[in-house]
Amino acid sequence: MYKSIIVRGASENNLKNISINIPINKISVITGLSGSGKSSLAIDTISAEGQRRYIETFSSYARQFLDRIDKPNVESLEGLLPSIAIQQVNPVKTSRSTVGTMTELSDHLKILFSKASDLFCKNCGIKISPDDLDDIAETVKTQMQGKKIGISFSLDKPKSLSEIDFKNWLSSQGYTKFLYSTGNRVKVLVGRFKITNSTKISELHDIFSQANKAGKNHFEILELDTEKVIRKCTTNFSCTTCKTNFKYPRPALFSFNSPIGACDECKGFGKVIGLDIDLVIPDKSLSIEEGVIKPFNSAAYRKYKSELIKFATDENIPIHLPWSKLHQKDKIWIINGGLNSKSATKRRTWVGLTNIFKKIEKKSYKMHVRVFLSRYRSYENCEKCNGKRLKQEPLNWKINEMDIHDWSCLEIDEINREIKKLEKCMTFENLSQGKKKAVGLISTEIKSRIKYLQEVGLGYLTLDRQSRTLSGGEVQRINLTTALGSSLTNTLFILDEPSIGLHHKDLVNLITVIKRLKSMGNTILIVEHDSLLISESDNIIEIGPEAGEKGGSISFEGTYKQLIRSSCITGKYLRKNNLLEEKENKAPLKNKFVEIRGIESNNLNNINITFPIRMLTAITGVSGSGKSSLVENIIFPAIAKNLGMPQVLNGKIKSISGENYFSNIIYANQKSVTKNARSNPALYTGVFSLIRDIYGKLEESKINNYTSSHFSFNSTLGQCPSCQGHGVEKIELQFLSDLSLQCPLCKGTKYKKDVVSIRYNEKSIVDVLNLSVSQAKTFFSEKQNVIKKLEPLIDVGLGYLKLGQSLSTLSGGELQRLKIADHLLSGEKISSKSNKKTLFIFDEPTTGLHLADVKNLLIALRKLTESGHTVIVIEHCLEFINNSDWIIELGPGAGKKGGNVLAQMPPKNLKTTNTNTGLALASTSSRKTPKLENSIAKSAEISSDMIQVQNASENNLQNVSVDIPLNKLTLITGVSGSGKSTLAFDIIFSEGRRRYLDSLNAYAKQFIQPASKPSFDRIINIPPTVAVEQRTTQGGFKSTVGTLTEISHFLRVLFVAIGKQYCPNCNVPVDVKNSKEIFDTICRSWKGQTIRIFAPLVKKRKGTYKDIAKWAESRKYKFLKIDSILHSVKKFPELERYKEHSIELLVSELKITDDKKLLIEEKIQEGLLIGKGQIEIEELTIRKLKKDSFTVGENKLFSLNRTCPKCETAFDELDPRMFSFNSKIGWCNICLGSGFEYNVKDFPENENDGFSFHRDSIDIELFELVNCKKCNGSRLNDISSAVRIGNETITDLSNKHLMELEKWIDSVPQLLTQRELLISKFVTEELKSRLAFIKKVGLDYLSLNRSAPTLSGGELQRIKLAAQLGSNLNGVCYVLDEPTIGLHPQDNDVLLKAIDELKKRGNTVIIIEHDPDTIKKADYIIDMGPGAGELGGKIIAKGSLKEIKKNERSITGKYLRKKKQKSLSCLNHPSEFFEIRDANLNNLKNIDVRFAHNCINVITGVSGSGKSSLVKGVLVHNLKKIINNYFSRERKKIHSFYKCSDIKGWENFDKLLEVDQNPIGRTPRSTPATYLNIWDSVRKIFSETNSAKEKGWKASYFSFNSGEGRCETCKGLGKENIKMNFLPNVAIKCESCDGFRFSGETLSILWQGMNIAEVLNMSIDTACVFFKNHRKIYSALSLMSQFGLGYLRLGQASSTLSGGEAQRLKLIAELQKDKESERTLYVFDEPTVGLHMSDVTNLLNIFKTLIKNGNTIIVIEHNADVWIKSDWVIELGPSGGNNGGFLLSQCTPNELINQKTPTGDVLKKCVL
Questions:
Q1: Per-residue pLDDT for 434 more than 70?
Q2: What percentage of the chain has pLDDT greater than the value 70?
Q3: Edge-to-edge strand order for the sheet containing 523-527?
Q4: Checking phi first, is residue 267 left (phi over 0); if not, alpha (psi -120 to 50) or beta?
Q5: 48, 70 in Cβ contact below 8 A?
Q6: SS3 870
Q7: Residue 1267 CB coordination number (10 Å)
Q8: Which of 808, 973, 1129, 1642 is close enough to 675 for a disulfide, judged by CB 3.0 to 4.6 Å?
Q9: Whole-number percent of the chain with pLDDT over 90
């Protein structure tokens, strides 16, 4: 287990090949000058690689939605944890994200409301709570002694029944006493009682239950004598007064991101877009005639103005009167239109502005219409929910008299008080013991998260505040507390200057939070400059010694004590403890103040502020105290407005004075500089224009007609034509990082060679761009205008930057100073034109700056004040504040507790006060080491070495709480269906991944995050999780080893990057061809003919491509050819987004004649330029262009880059899809990428994939497949197969064994040029890495082209495990689902070693497993049960192996305690055999194999030894043709067998039954009841009831798939698919049928007291009792119960069944049909998959029954218990692949013990 993250050879950006160890579970700080390389190490290297490795564990489908993370430039990174970078940015753009959702407080509030809120009827206002029948019975007996009572219910008559029919139906149900019948409602008496001491509570309960069910959860208790209602009762959430029903309060009901709770109108946004009258009528001083309605003034809509004038005149509405003076009713008429007006009698009337805009909206598919509408529409509160985002129903639930929206509007500090009030006042009397515990947990969790938020100074935020309105610092601190609240462990958290935006007081609390995060088992790496945070870290690293190229080295590494004694720059400044020598602050000039009085904005409440001119003022205070409100909302807009700038004052002021001193105001906010690779400091500051002017005016430039534009690398006049001025050539490596190589033409200069030859003072423009700012100042010493532009950069400490350095390489601190320098330059420029000066306002300018950089910044700002300017700074940096001239401090707290002026004075005076800043400054001046008390550290040390799951109740889990040890191997076992997968995958894996994914972008999360959070109360200390699940299906023949391992993907990239194209016809390399040669060929080939010249734009790519049509139309082109059809650019068709399209531009149509050669050549050149070196020529054989679209012929391709020198055939540029047999571009057009010959009619067509070739949809064994003659099995077309690296094609490499492929990759460098080596380096490294891990799990005998269906289960499992080993992660939790499936016990050792390696790296491993050997290897075992389904879901034992064995309740322990058998004895002694001769499929070595008749035959052997090839590929394939009517059963001679010479003895079988692991159904409509054909019998029973007969309902009426009785809303599914804006679609329970699938009328039909939905929801065991008198139904159900499937439900979706469950259902289905006279050959493929040891015993008993009935069983199996109980064992081996396929033994188990084979050795261990 690693104790440090070991970084070796980091060279990212300016890092100088540094190596360093970062201790795990410690706080490390990286500091250094701005631009020294801190972020390059922390963010770009360590964080990027940690996140990249974890994301590599996702599926390839999921990874396509994530931002591609480039592999950093580092030699090695070991011991790396999954990393989460918490940076100073706000990436949130969606308005669905709020502070509540980000902090997860909203999630916890939803749970709290679902468990502890009170319901109030929206109509009656009374409190509603469901009654408990036992409580009612107890109350009636105790309080109604001696009374005669009746129990009644009321029902509404269905519209389809008459009153008589309705009463007859009730009578048939046993209800004959009707109290009254009024119209459509009937009141029925169920029973009567005289309450005495002898009255039994159970009798009362039964009658209440009957009435409650009949009355649909409503009933009444009456006084019989008077028929007066004593009590109205309801067992659900219904109002007893108005009978309004309410939903059960689940968390989704209170979520605006769920369709259950979200407002139907706004879909949970709270706002809807609509017409904004203020935008339509901006100037209300205008009249109708003057054009008050702005959109009607444009030419396109002027007609509406004329209409309005006409109709307004008819209505006597003054058209000359200003809008502001119009009567209100006239305004409404203009906006909404008039129907009951004088003009209404005429043919037309004024329709109103709103209706006109609705009409225009119908054309919003046009871009210009959408642009027009956007100008006049805005978001406004949704009228239906009034901006609350929720439906009315969730707002009826309240806690502390507030609904959940009211709670969301509270500040976090206020929520804390309300939670405490709830705990204090609420007795929870109406809650069960379990709910009380849950509410206690939730309230504790809420208080804990609130505490973290308060500690980082965010208690002023409200939960409903949109995330996108937060600052970068606020988002960072929220993410930090969310990480703390989510209880992630074993994670590397990288914080980017968390002190930014924090006052010294808040910083102390932040450090406590960071230490608590560390105490949870996490590692913290912080990029920081703050002295207090540095002092509290465990390890400090300084990068330096200077910035830029002079940085990137380790200047210091050690503890804080060592740092303050060191000579590094940070040590020096910390020892000095202040930036500059303290000197007397300047006294403010008399009467030279700006004063603003009566300020009101946000939390600023009637305050007055003053600040001196010509001085540096610092505005400070705790977070949320009102600093930004003061500056952004008041100071800047108030003064800017006075200067004539269009600014809106966001608040109120009473007066302002002194503002006339300024001629300009500049506000530098926190908005970051865009990191553009083409931009540089010279461009950003504008000095580059001056430099270009110098070069453009040189004599040599004038001679060459060069202007200043020629010296711009962004201009086509001077830039290199090859790299377009980038200086590098970008090589796209698809899903790998793009590779940038120096441009071979300009050698990285970015310019044309001739431009570089022009020199000024012996330096070219390239030389100048390579100068540092300081060097450039010296070089241009005579150019004052240049020097003025450069000086601000030097003043802020950026003299070391190169003029041409890309902004994308600058650090955050460098960008901040660059922005400041630009503002300084702008202010000086404007102020120099007048005597008045500039007011500069900076928002935290010290962001990202080291103390040494802050010193330079202060010097620059003092220069401004000395020049007469005024500077205001929002700042928290104590060193900066201490050196300012004036301080305004706001506070004392945040939010409502802030907004007051605490002090306005010089720093010297402030130090004597007791304000937060005053105290902090005083401690700074005392020169004490800023070290916190040790008590803070101690209080934060709360560690745990367990994943703690509390009250998990997902699926059948029954409030399971369990602790799982970290960094250990934990094994979860138990009977099938006991809840193992639910605990491991649905709870632990889903939640661990969900919490990590919260750090990713919102777009990605909607595709890869579970749609709903699993049901549990709390999980703490959970690491990021990785799943290795079972592969339920093997995939189609188009899925191969190469695609499964993704090695083929990387090979495709390699061939695109460095492959050489050969002509498939001439076998010679393709070459370049110049445009003159293309011109000559065209003129020669089509002389005298009319041709069309096309430029290819898109080649077989998905998309809509509307922008191409706009571009073509703007360039005056008329036609585009789209998928071989010519279209007018003006009528561009709507293309299917997810279908591949090809688009070519028609450049010209012309006739090839001598007199047009110049035009032809010009058009060819034009086409080649647009088509990037390619054009297509079509010979015109049809009429002239007249229509908008028509079909055209095939085109002839010409290419500048790829043309055969012999036959002149041109080829497309290499594309990864060319080497994919799943793409139309790459596959062989005969076999469509399958590699086999077959009749395409036998396969379903698929538009994108050709023909589906999936094993589970077509019985592939029925086809004797032979290699395709066209591609000879390579699967690719001729062109793709002709691309080579050296002498090898991609087909050659795919046919090699992986061990041979590894050797070839090692030899590749010898075949390549230096440039090709650079390009291929990353790809070959990735290939080597993946091959190494494939080798580690023993699969290097496979080849890439091996089809997935031919792989064994064990091989598939190990391929998946190899992928996880390859991720090289540390600290994660791996969750594996039965990894030993398909593995021989000998292979288990390889697997267990791999799992042990994962554990030794410091990972937690959780395995679902039944294998005894694996169980014995576990550190901790959890046994679930005691039964399956509803009888399971509990932990019956947990602990070490020894503890499990001792536990009498543990079923697993019982089997592990069993003593080994001393000998083996066959139940059936084999006497008759049938035989396969010369089996030779795949790796089988012409073996002769015997199978015993009427016995259990086991086929075993190591993975890949040939078991499936023998049984399924040879035996089953041949016998299916012979036995199952593919050939006649008559004694005709069989001409040939597939892959064997003969099969002897097959005549003894009447039937072959193959039972495999494929799913039995893929939709929720398939269920066990329908699969076993018992549902038809059930429906028939219901159709034969009297009630159904009276209605004429047949059996078909009761079908949920097609019957009339099913629910019409959900079509019998029980669920509805709801679309949510910007969220994944959500499946929710159908509200119409409440998830029961059937209509209400259908559910009224009862049989034995149950309706059909209740029957469908029965477990198999319950149904066995219910249908015991129905032989056919009972027979199938009893078989299921015997097979251990009694926990399944009749209506359970088949798609939710495991492979083992599906296999047993198939067997049951066949056993139902089995005839005693038939002799059946049963073939099973690993039937013990997913079975506990006890289930295996049941399975073996079934096998014995089948044998007794005269059948024969063949089982592919690795389970030793099955071997022992078998009669005949056939073993193949000795290993996999080419080294397998031999027959090692065929004998009885007793004989096998004495043989030295892998199976024989295992059997020996099984017996004494």
A1: no
A2: 87
A3: 83-86, 492-496, 523-527, 27-32, 539-544, 553-558
A4: left
A5: yes
A6: strand
A7: 14
A8: 808
A9: 22
Instruction: Output the CA–CA distances (angstroms, integers) from residue 951 to 435, 881, 961, 1160, in the order listed.
Output: 10, 51, 5, 79
User: What is the CB neighbour count within 10 angstroms for residue 787?
Assistant: 17
Which of the four pLDDT bands, split at 50, 70 and 90, describes residue 1190? very low
If you ran DSSP here, which 8-state letter would residue 1071 be given?
B
Crossing angle between the packed helical segments 1314-1336 and 1353-1366, to the nearest 10 degrees: 130
Rounded CA-CA distance 954/980 in Å is 11
Q: Where are the alpha helices (DSSP H) in 1669-1714?
A: 1671-1682, 1699-1713
Q: Is the dihedral of CA 1295, 1297, 1298, 1300 positive or negative?
A: negative
Q: Which residues pair with 1203 in a beta bridge?
A: 1071, 1210
Using the predicted structure, report yes or no on whether residue 516 has a pLDDT greater than 60. yes
Strands (E), 722-855: 728-731, 739-742, 837-843
Q: For residue 1183, which of 1174, 1175, 1191 has the smallest C-alpha distance?
A: 1191
Residue 430 has pLDDT above 60, yes or no: no
Q: How far apart are CA 1670 and CA 1667, in angstroms?
A: 5
Q: How confident is the model at residue 1005 (pLDDT cuts 50, 70, 90)?
A: low
- Mean pLDDT, rounded, for 1485-1510: 92
Tell me which H or E stretch contains 1095.
Answer: strand 1090-1102
Q: Rounded to an integer, what is the distance from CA 182 to the centroid of its chain?
A: 57
Question: Nearest Cα to 100, choosing from 356, 473, 464?
Answer: 464
- Inter-axis angle of helices 1798-1806 and 1385-1400, to 10 degrees? 80
Contact yes or no for 167/178 (Cβ under 8 A) = yes
Mean pLDDT of 324-329: 89
Listed residue (1012, 1015, 1017) closest to 257, CA to CA: 1012
Judge if the upstream peptide bond of residue 1774 is cis by omega within 30 degrees of 0: yes
Residue 250: its pLDDT value, please? Answer: 82
Residue 1009, sorted as left (phi over 0), alpha (psi -120 to 50) or beta, turns out to be beta
Classify strands 218-223 and 228-234 as parallel, antiparallel or unpaired: antiparallel
Sign of the dihedral through C-alpha 507, 512, 516, 519: positive
Tokens of 868: 């007469």
Which residue's structure tokens are 């879901």?
1433
Span between the terminal Cα atoms of the chain, in Å: 38
3-state DSSP: the chain helix, strand, coil percent, rounded to 5? 40, 20, 40
CA distance 552 to 18: 8
Asked if residues 966 and 1399 have their Cβ atoms less than 8 Å apart, the reply is no
Among residues 1330, 1258, 1264, the alpha carbon closest in space to that of 1298 is found at 1330
What's the token pair of residue 993? 């991944």
Phi/psi at 1623 (nearest 5 deg)? -135, 160
User: CB-based burial of residue 1213 (10 Å sphere; 0-12 exposed, 13-18 middle, 19+ buried)?
Assistant: middle
- Nearest of 841, 839, 916, 915 to residue 874 by alpha carbon: 841
Sheet with strand 1473-1479: strands edge to edge = 1487-1492, 1473-1479, 1542-1544
* Tokens found for residue 910: 């402030």
DSSP 1536-1555: --TTSSEEESGGG-SEEEEE
Main-chain dihedrals φ then ψ at residue 940, nearest 5 degrees: -90, -10
Q: What is the dihedral of CA 1425, 1431, 1432, 1436, to 10 degrees?
A: -40
CA atoms within 13 A on the CB side of 955: 22
Candidate from 794-803, 1362-1371, 1634-1643 with smallest mean pLDDT: 1362-1371
Amino acid letter at 71? K
- Which is nearest to 798 in space by CA: 568, 547, 552, 569? 547
pLDDT of residue 993 exceeding 50, the answer is: yes
